[in-house]
Design brief:
Blueprint lengths: L19 H33 L4 H28 L8 H19 L5 H29 L5 H26 L3 H22 L14 H7 L8 H21 L2 H8 L5 H30 L3 H20 L3 H28 L7 H30 L2 H19 L7
Helix pairs in contact: 1-2, 1-5, 1-6, 2-4, 2-13, 3-4, 3-6, 4-13, 5-10, 5-12, 8-11, 8-12, 8-13, 8-14, 9-10, 10-12, 11-12, 11-14
Length: 415
Amino acid sequence: MSSADITSDTESQPVRPVSRAWTGRFTLLWFGFWLAWLVPVQLLLPNQLAALDSVHKVRDFAVINGLAGVVALIALPVCGALCDHTRSRFGRRRVWMAAGIVVFVVALALTGLQGSWGGVAVCWLVASLGFSMSSAGLTAAVADQVPENQRGKVSAAMFGPQAVGILVGLVVVTQLITGTITGYLLLAVVAVVCATPFVLRYRESAGNQPKLPLSVRTLTDSMWVSPRANPDFAWAFGGRLMVNFGNALSTTYLLYFFTDSLKLADPDNALLVATAIYLVFTLLATYLGGAASDRTGRRRIFVASASCLQAIAALLLVIWPSFTTAEIAAGFLGAGYGAFLSVDQALVIQVLPDAESRAKDLGIMNVGTNVPQSLAPLAAALVITVLGGYTVLFAVAGVATLIGAAMVYRVRSVR
């Protein structure tokens, strides 16, 4: 580990650039994490639940993801606060990275072995807890060690692998692997292999130790960040929440949309094609958007424009619901979500209220990323079954994303 990767004792904000090796290991870790987290959501869980009870597959999938959202809602800020106050010879961030990985992959492997709805639910909730634990250390590591003029690029390194992980995972699971159990086990192994180099080589920033011990009262008090005292934090959180909610509404039920609404002969392959298109545009927008934002020093215009591109994708499916439209929408969605992910993360770090509570505050912010992905299936199921089907679903998704774009522009302290 070079000295360039470590912040000095006196710096509350990092100024030394992280190395390419640091960024490369960080990218590899997130490739494995996104593959292991999102492929089950997109394919393995829906297929597993359909095999267990095809009549109630939409309801079961929605409830499981809704419960996982509740777990993330609690675990993300709590694990962040605990991470901020952890004292150990291995540092505070790395302990939570490693512990979360272990919990996540064990629960992931066990999910594939379940033969009942309840068993799947319990294991997936534990997996959600593990993902939240690791996220506490990993996102705080960016705030601790990455200077402002690199945060767009490093955020791209975090979110760019998301689409690659989904595509690679879908290809492997649909084309090369037979059996749900094998699919889950393979994803667990890949997650461990990809995470190991970063976790082993990571070193705490100099002087990055908790200043005060954590009590129950300190923990509960820290869970509240006053919108009145920190309006930019509140607006950034609201924007992130709405954009991610709109994106999750648009994507979570794509497999069922292709199967039940468009009635495609091969919905699994259709999902693979749409994801491949999404991948190309996501990769381009994530890295180009992050680099352009770092170069210009502007964040809001990139985040708001990216949000509008996602709204266009959803509204296209409202007007012309077809697979051809879905392919076009995948391009808009990928471009919008890719640029949003990389630049929004950089924007969020700039509005954190206190350098001493970065992991906790980022945990609260990550609620706006993770919880919508878990709760959206529940909301989408209600829309699909009660309010009018997939057309209404995509309309709600587009409106939610536009609201998020408007909220981002209320942030005043970031250009």
